[in-house]
Write a structure and sequence with these properties.
With 275 residues, the chain is an alpha/beta fold. The chain has a single domain (3-274), classed as Ribonuclease Z/Hydroxyacylglutathione hydrolase-like (Metallo-beta-lactamase, Chain A), CATH 3.60.15.10. 21% of the residues lie in helices and 28% in strands. It contains 8 helices and 17 strands. The chain has helices at 38-43, 65-70, 86-91, 98-110, 164-170, 174-182, 222-228, 250-253, and strands at 3-7, 16-19, 25-28, 48-53, 74-75, 78-79, 118-122, 125-130, 146-151, 154-158, 185-187, 208-211, 232-236, 242-245, 247-249, 256-262, 268-274. Strand 4 (48-53), helix 2 (65-70) and strand 5 form a beta-alpha-beta unit.
Length: 275
């Protein structure tokens, strides 16, 4: 019985796929790269998405939205920051995303409204979404959802492009603050850039941080996230050797595979693989 999480290497975008012990697929964001389509990859294994989460509707998080229908996916639940108005979303996206945004708006209209926090248990895994919707709409990054997985005492926190104003509001929510204190794996907000970094969220250090962006114009905060992590053994897929790491980046380490379960002796484990 395992929780499996794949953090795909999609360059500028974001795409995470999780599989619960009962085989249900959880999809967080729909980014892609020129040479890799996460949805095409997923379609080979599962055509049913139990829980689709779009942390916020910026183009690099909805890039594959049109593929959902083309590939015939069935979506049982859809979380998004529904309180955002269409014009606020359109104004903060480039024109090239207009067709994808139209599909996003159409699909959003077909699903019931949801609260800022959803708690779902799937295959024994607790999946909770947190969000702050009181920030100004001039920057919809601050309306990004944050997804928390908990299984066998291991906690994984995956935000969108949250920036300091939303982090500060989120830390006022006791349940979210508690999740951050328990976090074993933390995926850096806004792809690991300085704009998404806030030291105050690290009251307790996670074992491992994940950055998806590279060093672009010195905006990468990888060194800061490295400082906040205690370190974890990461296995190389190529050499099978293990190295203690504090921060991984998909740009350098390829896609990341996280597995959470119990050993034969009943002890919980967290396994992480990189390139």
């Amino acid at each position: 019985m395992k929780l499996k999480i794949f953090v795909h290497n999609v360059g500028h975008g974001q795409a995470i796929h999780a599989f619960t012990p009962s085989g249900e697929a959880i999809v967080i964001d729909l980014g892609c790269s020129e040479d890799f389509s996460p949805l095409n990859w997923l379609s080979k294994y599962n055509k049913v998405i139990e829980f689709l989460i779009v942390t916020h509707p910026h183009g690099d998080h909805i890039d594959e939205f049109l593929l959902l229908q083309r590939l015939g996916f069935k979506i049982n639940a859809f979380w998004r920051p529904i309180w955002l108005k269409e014009m606020d979303i359109i104004n903060q996206n480039q024109g090239q995303y207009s067709e994808k945004l139209d599909s996003y708006f159409e699909m959003s209209g077909r699903y019931y409204s949801v609260s800022p926090s959803i708690n779902k248990v799937s295959g024994g895994v607790s999946i909770t979404t947190f969000a702050s919707h009181n920030c100004g709409v001039s920057n919809i990054n601050n309306h990004s959802g944050v997804v928390v997985f908990e299984y066998h005492g291991v906690t994984v926190v995956i935000p969108g492009d949250n920036e300091p104003p939303s982090w500060r509001e989120l830390m006022q929510q006791p349940k979210f603050a508690k999740s951050m204190k328990k976090a074993n794996v933390f995926m850096a907000s806004h792809h690991g850039r300085e704009s998404g970094y806030l030291a105050d969220i690290f009251e307790e250090k996670p074992n491992l941080c994940i950055v998806s962006d590279g060093r672009v114009q010195n905006t990468c905060a990888r060194d800061r996230y490295t400082y906040h992590a205690t370190g974890w053994d990461v296995q190389s897929r190529s050499s099978l050797s293990k190295t203690t790491r504090k921060c991984l980046t998909t740009r350098n380490d390829g896609y990341l595979y996280i597995e959470i379960g119990k050993n034969p002796n009943g002890e919980s484990y967290l396994s992480v693989e990189a390139k």
